[in-house]
UniProtKB/TrEMBL annotation:
GO terms for cellular component: plasma membrane. It is a peripheral membrane protein. It comes from the Bacteria. This is ATP-binding cassette domain-containing protein. It comes from Paenibacillus validus. SUPFAM superfamilies: P-loop containing nucleoside triphosphate hydrolases.
């Protein structure tokens, strides 16, 4: 039997109201790449944060190299040989490569830093990984792929025997991905064990030896990669619960559209997407699905003028438009509800009244003088129409629930009378009751003729509310799903690169 460098047995972690990890067993062999898969909320990140010492489990045990261990801090985890490489890289951009590699473990000559020794050891380490990066190179001048490799090198310099990689290729080019895979093979040859968290099935089947799938906090199974296929893995991730969120609202039967599109995007290329084309029709809810880093949010930002595009066209009501700013978009009747409502959507210290009228003050008060009575009337109408609770216009928005905060953001957008509403993760972090209310609101708006684009990481959400859904993979449109084709398994299959 292969040697287990790591055993996690009966791991359970409970947060208020939810069992995030439920009696999970996980093993890792020396010199293997083990994929850890599951939908958002399946428990992957929580399990890895327990290994990293960020969280402490309610029950269960961890064994490293045959010895039971207690991991009660990030430092302890590192001392035991666990290196964590999260999506948000922790390299410091203003330091050079050598300084990053030896951060918090600097080499010294007496009381002074031994920069010469650190540069020499950094150079040797980088060369061992097949890299030609200079130890003196400032990290902010490196590509994302090179920064990713610096993270790996830092873990190796700390004698990591286990390296966790969380979506390591989400921001990498194809060439950078291939370089990363080469490095992973070198690490395997050294006996380093790697836990590989990703949704990209082509990568999983290319570099991983085994696959463990979590669903709803529970372990479903562990399989040898060579004995599995994509459809089997997706079935394990989704389960047989296909109808769980089955349409809380009535989906339009799309079929062949006969009316002219209100919005047409042709071969649009931006920072994280390329040659994207689709049409949006009046009264339609169009979904955009894809993995993190697939370009979903960036497409919305490009349409509403927040991000530049390098090529392609945006046509609205038959006329090609050049949208260079959010003000251009608003004038055309396009408005976006951002993903981060707390930092980009609301002003927590202001009241509901002040928040809902904020972006349309010139229309409400053309003379330039804000009339509190008028503002109060507008706020009251918004509170009634969107069922914002509590119904006090003077209530500070920062004191509202997440669902009601989102309703405030949406009401402010609706006060601009948009033709097209762009929704980025519109129900993130809110409860099921609030979600259902918002779903019904979106359908009501569409029934009144508004065109809506929804970007969401929650597959049941897209299944519930969209009339059509385009699926992105590596920044390009992989397929367009309609009617009964819009289901969890189909979306995930295409989003992970299924052929």
């Amino acid at each position: 039997m292969a040697e287990h460098v790591l055993e996690m047995a009966g791991i359970t972690k409970v947060f208020p109201g939810v069992k995030a990890v439920d009696n999970v067993n996980f093993t890792l062999r020396k010199g293997e790449v083990h994929a850890l898969l599951g939908e958002n909320g399946a428990g992957k990140t929580t399990l890895m944060k327990i290994l990293a010492g960020v969280y402490r489990p309610e029950q269960g045990k961890i064994v490293i190299d045959g010895q039971p261990v207690q991991i009660n801090s990030r430092k302890k985890s590192q001392e035991l040989g666990v290196g964590m490489i999260f999506q948000e890289l922790s390299v410091l951009p203003n330091l050079n490569v050598a300084e990053n590699l030896f951060l918090a473990k600097e080499k010294k000559k007496g009381m002074l830093l031994d920069n010469s020794l650190m540069e020499k050891e950094a150079q040797a380490l980088l060369q061992s990984l097949g890299l030609s990066i200079s130890p003196n190179q400032i990290v902010k001048n490196l590509s994302m792929g090179e920064r990713q490799v610096i993270e790996i090198a830092r873990a190796i310099s700390s004698d990591a025997k286990i390296i966790v990689m969380d979506e390591p290729t989400s921001a990498l080019t194809h060439d950078e991905q291939e370089k990363l895979f080469e490095i992973i093979q070198k690490l395997k040859a050294r006996g380093t064990a790697i836990i590989y968290v990703s949704h990209r099935m082509d990568e999983i089947f290319k570099i991983c030896d085994r696959i463990t799938v979590l669903r709803d906090g529970k372990k479903i199974d562990t399989v040898d990669t060579k004995e599995a296929d994509i459809k089997q893995i997706i079935n394990m991730m989704i389960g047989d619960n296909e109808g769980f969120h089955e349409s809380v609202i009535a989906r339009k039967q799309t079929g062949k559209q006969t009316a002219a599109p209100i919005l047409q995007v042709d071969r649009l290329t931006g920072t994280k997407f390329k040659n994207v084309s689709f049409k949006l029709y009046k009264g339609e809810i169009l979904g955009i699905a894809g993995l993190l880093g697939s370009g979903r949010t960036e497409i919305l930002r490009a349409i509403c003028g927040l991000d530049p595009v390098s090529s392609g066209t945006i046509t609205m009501n038959g006329t090609v438009r050049r949208i260079k700013s959010i003000q251009d978009a608003i004038r055309l009747g396009i408005i976006m509800v951002p993903e981060d409502r707390r930092n980009e959507g609301i002003i927590p210290g202001m009241s509901i009244r002040e928040n809902v009228t904020l972006t349309n003050l010139p229309a409400f008060f053309p003379s330039g003088v804000i009339k509190s009575k008028t503002e109060h009337t507008v706020a009251r109408r918004n509170i009634t129409d969107l069922k914002i609770a509590p119904g006090d216009p003077e209530k500070k928005v920062g004191k509202l629930s997440g669902g009601n905060q989102q309703k405030v953001v949406i009401s402010r957008c609706l006060n601009l009378n948009p033709q097209i509403l762009l929704l980025d993760e519109p129900t993130q972090g809110i409860d099921i009751v609030a979600k259902t209310e918002l779903y019904k609101l979106f359908r009501s708006l569409a029934d009144q003729g508004m065109a809506i684009i929804v970007v969401s990481s929650e597959l049941p959400e897209l299944v519930s509310i969209t009339d059509r859904t385009i699926v992105l993979y590596d920044g390009q449109v992989k397929t367009t799903l309609e009617d009964a084709e819009i289901n969890n398994k189909s979306i995930l299959y295409h989003a992970t690169g299924g052929q």
